[in-house]
Amino acid sequence: MTKDLNRLMALMTGDEKHGPAATSTLDALWVLYDRVLRVTPETVDAPDRDRFLLSKGHGPMAFYAVLAAKGFLAEDLLAGFGSYDSPLGHHPDRLLVPGAEIGSGSLGHGLPLGVGTALGLRAQGLTGSRVWVLIGDAELDEGSVHEAVAYAGPAGLEQLHAVVIDNASARYGRPGGIADRFAAAGWSTRSANGRDHAELYAAFTAPHPGRPHAVIARVEPKNAVTPQNAR
Q1: Residue 4 has what pLDDT?
Q2: How confident is the model at residue 231 (pLDDT cuts 50, 70, 90)?
Q3: What is the DSSP letter of 142?
């Protein structure tokens, strides 16, 4: 399937500036949609579905490729990516892209929205539905993300999961690393090689009763991406 994803990615051109933002997420997205998320094209509106929120929406090509591979959208839409009349914009639009839960791309919005979504599901008694938010490491520089992290742990939002793609693009360092930032706020944490599907799956499915869960997926540094490793 990796070769097919690469083929689907190659159909989308015109946003090479954000190519590393997209390629860094490809493996994590595939493992989530292929083995973890409980949502399909047929259940995309089901109340008890899992919710996936792409906060790292400024490089959505990998997201679109995975959605096409899984049948959420037609493959022939990919070639028109970013064009005037295409539903596949440079930032995903939840009203135009089947399977997109939020419009995103501006840094710092996804995790707060994930907190709100988890609280809403809890209030409705939909405790079996999980919320997954994929963010970039640089988004941790945003105050709104820090507030979401600080709130979710003490609130015991077990349904909430954060996947942090760490491609060394954050501006500020964190004592102990990214995982320690979440752990200090009461989150369960796991780290994984962001290109190793077995490691990602194990990290995604680790038990975390009573606590939100963060997976830090390490990939090659943003400034080290080449045609050979830009998967």
Answers
A1: 86
A2: very low
A3: S
